[in-house]
Amino acid sequence: MGKVVVIDHPLLQHKLTLLRDKNTGTKDFKQLVKEMSMLMGYEITRDLPLQEIEVETPICLTKSKALAGKKLGIVPILRAGLGMVDGILELMPAAKVGHVGLYRDPETLEPVEYYCKLPTDVEERDLIVVDPMLATGGSAVAAIKFLKDRGATNIKLVCLLAAPEGVEAVQKVHDDVDIYLASLDERLNEHAYIVPGLGDAGDRLFGTK
Length: 209
Ligand code: PRP
Ligand code: URA
What we know:
Layout: E1 4-6, H1 10-20, H2 26-44, E2 50-56, E3 61-67, E4 72-78, H3 85-91, E5 96-97, E6 99-104, E7 111-117, E8 126-130, E9 133-134, H4 138-149, E10 154-158, E11 161-162, H5 164-173, E12 178-181, E13 183-184, E14 187-188, E15 194-195, H6 201-206
Parallel strand pairs: 1-12, 4-5, 4-6, 4-8, 8-10, 9-11, 10-12, 11-13
Antiparallel strand pairs: 2-3, 6-7, 14-15
Helix pairs in contact: 1-2, 2-3
Uracil binds at residues 133, 135, 193-194, 197, 200-202.
């Protein structure tokens, strides 16, 4: 079973509180999502392989560690996932970015695919799927399935908030996927919004409501 990691770093938790606040406007919301994604990126890359290389300091020649060049991919689930790309990309600028477009049908709450564009060598890359919200889990389950159907084998899911129902849904279908969160919230409400949550992540990021 994939692990569920709730990252309890004080900076991350502080920023999450600001993000939840309904009075936080679009500009700050966007900046906070970026900063939180960067902080989470630090934790999710803990297991990246290193190799020793030679480097010449101003004093002498020495051996020092460098990333072993693992190929990475960041896959935001559109639209709200876009807000998490830049923060992670700043930490790992060589990563390629693929996009999966899904929206939740407001009647059925089922995810509907409207866009998919991935790096051509997606099957060779370790993929980090990003979406601020894991609610019913329908979107994440579908997005991960698209990636697996195209040959991806090593996938991590990074969300700011999750409901227990969403975590369970992902684990049920994709038990090989580790899930990283800033908070595991209480539950879903009758409209499948996360409680206490932060409202509609896409609308708050892009100012559409
Ligand atoms: C939100 C969110 C997730 C999805 C989570 O996107 O960003 O993708 O809902 O819900 P689920 O776990 O029940 O599938 P939304 O469908 O509102 O689209 P948007 O990102 O375009 O706003
Ligand atoms: N999507 C959101 O943006 N927020 C929720 O609480 C649930 C799904």
